[in-house]
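Sequence in, structure out. Go.
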Amino acid sequence: MKGMKKLYQIKNENEIYLYDDVTSGVTAREVIKALKESTGPVTLRINSHGGDVFEAIALYNVLKNYSVTVYVDGICASAASIIAMAGRVIMPSNSMMMIHNPAGMVTGESEDMRKLADVLDKIRDSIAEIYASKTGLGHDEIIEMMKAESWMTASEAKALGFADEITGEIVNTSAKTFDDGVKAERERLKALDSLNAPGREGIIARAKYETFKNASEIAVDLLKAKSTTEIYAVTKPEEDYTAVAKIINKARGY
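Output:
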């Protein structure tokens, strides 16, 4: 059938593919026929630029009677976005959604043109109610978005309430990584300072600014260097060995 691949069963789920235009008089009727004997949850996968607005509203109303999970596999635009509002919307990070005002054509006198404008405004308000019901945004805000022909990334759609979840989302962790690095370096320097004592200044300074060793590594170096004159300024070597050993054991988790 035009406008939709065959609806088929996957285990106990109905899975619908809307990978074409929303076609007047076809799409909703075929879906109703396919779902007639079903009572289970429905999965709707969308990759569509839209189509007939009334067909989309009909399909939206049908799907609202089911538990629906909507996957935006590529683009969900225009009339297709109306259908998507029937369920929980999941968008990959590289997918997009678009909403805009309805459009139409008429042939006739100026009065016919004015009548069409009034009808289009009513259709616009009807669509806005569907978007507002899903997102929680105000009617006027939705109207402005439709007027502007709003293209939304997955992140934008989620932020505005048009989508509920993003898969494959790229999260910027650079700030968190930087903050963690600063914290770790402060802790390293503080631990090295706890090991400092007369005669050790040279080893500690090199660890801080040249070798960038941590406290447990320097503790081992201090134990090895006990026989050198560089750190022989301690008054009680046995106490010093004990303190250094504690640092090593703490680093090992003991």
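Check: The chain has two domains: 8-167, 174-251. Residues 196 and 204 are 7 Å apart (CA to CA).
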